[in-house]
Design brief:
Length: about 375
C-alpha cells in the first residue's frame, strides 16, 4: 500500500531480477538493457504501477524497454561537457552555475539525458567542493546556482547543508535551486527528514530563496504523500516549481498533461518548463517530434487556467534554451529563451516545418537568414 513504509525500511531495487511482477523471460530480455543503462527504483514508486496494464505510464517511466537498445541518440545530447569548468561544475549561462552534487537517484527515469552519470558515476559529479566555491566566488555575475545530479536529496541533509551553507556565504549568489524528483520517487526523504526541512528554513531567507524544482511528469505521481512532501517544503520556505519532459506514452495525451498542470497549480507548484525530450542514447521510443509536441502542449494549456499555463515548451540545445513558440503556414517559430552567448538571447528563428524533427538540428533550412551554427546532429547510429 502506498505510504505504508518509512524511508528507513524502503527497499531499493537495482537489478531487474528483483521484480517479482516480471516473468523470467521478461527479465532475461531486459537484462541486456540494464547491462547498458542502469535500473533503479524503490518499493514506494513501484507501488504506483498498475501491473495489469502493459501500457501503464508509471511502468513506462521506470521499467526498462527493449527499444532502449536502438541505435539513436548520444550520451551528452546538450554538450554539457563543453561548458564544464571542472568535473561537476558547469557554467553555460552567464548568471547561472550548475553543480552536479550527486551521482545517485531514488529512481532512474528511462528517458534520462544524463545516463553517462550512472555509467561513469565516479567521474561525472562534483568532488572538489572548495574549488567549485572558489570559482563561483570569483564570478560575481553568477546569481543562481542549480544543484542537480543525480538527485541532491539523496544526499544526507548534513552533506547537502555543507554545500548550501558555503553558497550562502557568497554574497552575489541570490538563488539556490535544487533539482529533485524525490517528491515523486520517494517523498519519505522529505516527510521523514526534519533536518532537511530545518536546513531549508534556515537558508531560504526573505531576500535569498531556495527553489525546489520538482519533476512530476504524470498526475498519478501526485499521491497524498507526495503532496504532503511538497507542502512541507513550502512551509519550510522553499519556492516550488515543476519541470518535466514530454514523454511518449506517459504524458503525451493533452488531457493527461492538462490534469497534471492543473493539479500542480492547485498545490502551489508553478508549472515552469516542459522540455522536448533530449535525444540521449536510447531515447527514441520516449521522444515525441517537436511539432507534434507543440500541438499537445498548446492543447493542454487551452484546458487550464492562466496559473496552470505559465509553462514554456523548450529544448535544452547545446547553443541555449530554445523555446518553441509557434507553428503556422508551413513554418515553425523558435526563440532563444536563454543562449549560451548572451548576445543571442531573445533571437527569433523562423524555420520550414519538418514533422519528423526531434531536435533543432533537424531543421536544415534557415528562413530568416539567421546564421545558426549547428555543426553536428544529435541522433542516428553511433
Amino acid at each position: 500500500m502506498v505510504g505504508s513504509r518509512s524511508d528507513n525500511r524502503m527497499r531499493h531495487l537495482t537489478k531487474i531480477e528483483q521484480l517479482d511482477q516480471l516473468s523470467r523471460t521478461e527479465c532475461a530480455e531486459l537484462k541486456a538493457v540494464t547491462d547498458k543503462f542502469a535500473f533503479r527504483s524503490n518499493d514506494y514508486y513501484m507501488s504506483l504501477i498498475d501491473w495489469d496494464d502493459p501500457d501503464d505510464p508509471i511502468r513506462r517511466l521506470i521499467i526498462p524497454a527493449r527499444q532502449e537498445l536502438d541505435e539513436w541518440g548520444r550520451l551528452d545530447p546538450s554538450d554539457e561537457k563543453t561548458y564544464c569548468i571542472m568535473p561537476g561544475l558547469e557554467h553555460k549561462y552567464n548568471s547561472t552555475a550548475l553543480l552536479l552534487v550527486s551521482n545517485v537517484c531514488d529512481g532512474i527515469c528511462r528517458y534520462c539525458f544524463r545516463k553517462r552519470v550512472f555509467i561513469n558515476p565516479q567521474s561525472e559529479y562534483l568532488r572538489d567542493v572548495p574549488a567549485a566555491m572558489q570559482y563561483i566566488s570569483r564570478h560575481e555575475e553568477i546569481t543562481n546556482v542549480l544543484l542537480t545530479g543525480g538527485d541532491p536529496l539523496v544526499l544526507k541533509p548534513s552533506k547537502l547543508e555543507n554545500i548550501i551553507r558555503q553558497l550562502r556565504q557568497i554574497e552575489h549568489v541570490k538563488i539556490i535551486r535544487i533539482g529533485t524528483k524525490a517528491p515523486a520517487f520517494n517523498p519519505y526523504r522529505i516527510v521523514n527528514e526534519p533536518d532537511l526541512l530545518e536546513m531549508i528554513d534556515k537558508y531560504s531567507t526573505d531576500h535569498k530563496r531556495i527553489y525546489i524544482m520538482t519533476h512530476f511528469i504524470h498526475p498519478r505521481e501526485l499521491t497524498n504523500l507526495a503532496v504532503k512532501a511538497v507542502g512541507l517544503l513550502q512551509k519550510a520556505g522553499a519556492i516550488t516549481a515543476n519541470q518535466m519532459p514530454l514523454i511518449r506514452g506517459v504524458n503525451d495525451n493533452p488531457e493527461v498533461l492538462a490534469e497534471l498542470l492543473a493539479r500542480l497549480s492547485f498545490i502551489g507548484v508553478v508549472p515552469y518548463y516542459i522540455f522536448q525530450c533530449r535525444p540521449a542514447l536510447g531515447n527514441k521510443a520516449y521522444t515525441v517530434p517537436i511539432e507534434e509536441g507543440y500541438e499537445i502542449v498548446e492543447w493542454a494549456k487551452a484546458l487550464v487556467s492562466g496559473l496552470a499555463k505559465r509553462v514554456r515548451f523548450v529544448m535544452s540545445h547545446s547553443t541555449g534554451k530554445v523555446e518553441i513558440v509557434g507553428k503556422s503556414g508551413g513554418l515553425v517559430y523558435f526563440k532563444y529563451h536563454r543562449a549560451a552567448e548572451n548576445a543571442d538571447s531573445g533571437r527569433f528563428l523562423t524555420l520550414t516545418s519538418n514533422p519528423d524533427a526531434y531536435w533543432l538540428d533537424d531543421y536544415v533550412e534557415m528562413i530568416e537568414d539567421y546564421p545558426v551554427d549547428l555543426p553536428y546532429r544529435f541522433y542516428g547510429p553511433q
